Amino acid sequence: MKQVHVEQIQKVIEAVKGKDIENIFFVACGGSMAALSFGDYFVTKDTDMPSFVYTSNEFIHRAPKALGEKSLVILKSHTGTTPETVGAATYARSKSALTVAISMDVESPLCQEAEFTVHYNYKDGSDAIDCEIGIYYTLLFKLLNLITGEEKYLRGVDQLSKLGELIERNQAKHKDVADAFGKKNKREKIIYTMASGAYIHHAYSFTSCLLMEMLWVNSNAIHSGEYFHGPFEITDYDVPFLMVVGEGPSTPLDQRALDFVTKYSENVEVVNVKEFDYTGVDEDLKEYFGPALAGPVLRLYADGLAEHTGHPLSVRRYMWKMEY
Amino acid sequence: MKQVHVEQIQKVIEAVKGKDIENIFFVACGGSMAALSFGDYFVTKDTDMPSFVYTSNEFIHRAPKALGEKSLVILKSHTGTTPETVGAATYARSKSALTVAISMDVESPLCQEAEFTVHYNYKDGSDAIDCEIGIYYTLLFKLLNLITGEEKYLRGVDQLSKLGELIERNQAKHKDVADAFGKKNKREKIIYTMASGAYIHHAYSFTSCLLMEMLWVNSNAIHSGEYFHGPFEITDYDVPFLMVVGEGPSTPLDQRALDFVTKYSENVEVVNVKEFDYTGVDEDLKEYFGPALAGPVLRLYADGLAEHTGHPLSVRRYMWKMEY
């Protein structure tokens, strides 16, 4: 990892150590909120530290009472310009919280607004450890180690050196099926996603940012545990589902939903994270690496749709084109 | 309120008083989870008590570390038979948490499993104060009063005596437009819902339980604050939206989304909770009564669709018909 990144993350850890932190807020919008949510997932699973996720403007307007000088607020915006997230940083600082901005641009308004900054490289040929997932996971593992004292998270930091290689290998493993998924589903107007545990946040990103935003395909991210309490009635032989079977404690929920959905729909695509290549990752760390690897793999399924629909992922009708 | 209900709620309040409660978990499935979520919304907005919502099986499998003897776990199942929620009660008790089951059937497995029971009447001609919303709001107001010491929640309990009348009046006000909505949208295969704050849980219920489950209409509950970070790209002149403009601090988020969506879609139905009839409710209590009244009003829009599609809300293809 680049020295500047090591130092930025270390400064955050030292700042957290120096304050009596009582709760953590993960605050961002859209895909960035979903990406931060893995932090909330692991904090709630592994520690008794209260942790919350908010979309930035809800955070500002609801004004959660638990936010204060003993709060750690982690914010993220790819460009660092998302106005609601910049506003959330301003609001969190006004409440004396410890604020950390994660962005690819340290000169951005968000990074100017937050007390601490964690930068990541983006599509500049840097190793995965210095890019979005590697940087965030390093921060998370170090935070989890600080809160719990458990050594496994430090092993996690070490094993992140495998991240780039593992992303490549797992992408290679899914390239052809993802392309076939795109071909098979290119005429579909609606594709549901389904997942649980940490992976519900991948389903949310895929639904909101890839299907609805970039591909103009209708969608809804269904929680595998909620499926049987309403949404499953929409299932029919010709209703497409993209199902993530996770690597983690809630896999049985996914398996149960998968058993049902494959019985009544003839168009179910499964991304089985349990079957990913985890070479070099310890058994007890797989559930952390699973969500880290699932994002780049899922992206291929959107690429497949883009290729076969002739609708590039870069096309927008509203975003960046007008004030809103 | 019936004496038995007064006593059940009082027992819960005494039990909470008698324990050093450090966090609250709201645990249920589907529409029951959404209904409980209003509690989480008000607890996070008005108090610094950590509060969390889980769908029952995710709760059991994630096994949040913060759950313990200082936890209050509020569970709900209409019939009290939802297996995942019964399992969640068992799990919470195994962790020595204080468990409260809310159900229409006190003999149900859920009520047998939980330490405390809060019953509500269902479609038996009882006054609204003894039914689902009245009972839950009474419990919530008393809990909020206990945690914060603020008197306004006790005024809230008093003013719940108006609930039945207000539900009727607001339903009467929306009956015709809800029917017209059903007629206008009877051929639609997808209808999006949108809301923020407490009302996102209404959008979730409407999407999951009314549109997808009962009407087999594709849907997704979009958070008004998230709309601009992905989902808004799906908007087009012929894409139907059912938009809830809430009464509460996040109304500006709804208003912003409404301004955009009405510009680019010609089929936006608005349920404006700010314009509801709140006769007899104090100004500072409107944001609590808004979500209580929005449910019965929104139900009319599903009735309108059922009437004009000839697809009764009671029809299912899988639920109650097979093992799953």
The largest sheet of chain A has its strands arranged as 2-1-3-4-5
Number of domains of chain A: 2
CATH class group of the largest domain in chain A: Alpha Beta
What is the N-to-C succession of helices and strands of chain A?
HEHEHEHEHEHHHEHEEHEH
How is this fold's topology laid out?
The structure is a homodimer of 324-residue chains.
Chain A: H1 3-18, E1 23-28, H2 30-46, E2 51-55, H3 56-62, E3 71-76, H4 83-94, E4 98-103, H5 109-113, E5 116-119, H6 132-148, H7 152-159, H8 163-184, E6 192-195, H9 200-214, E7 221-223, E8 241-245, H10 251-264, E9 268-272, H11 286-309
Parallel strand pairs in A: 1-2, 1-3, 3-4, 4-5, 6-7, 6-8, 8-9
Helix pairs in contact in A: 1-6, 2-6, 2-9, 3-4, 6-7, 8-11, 9-11
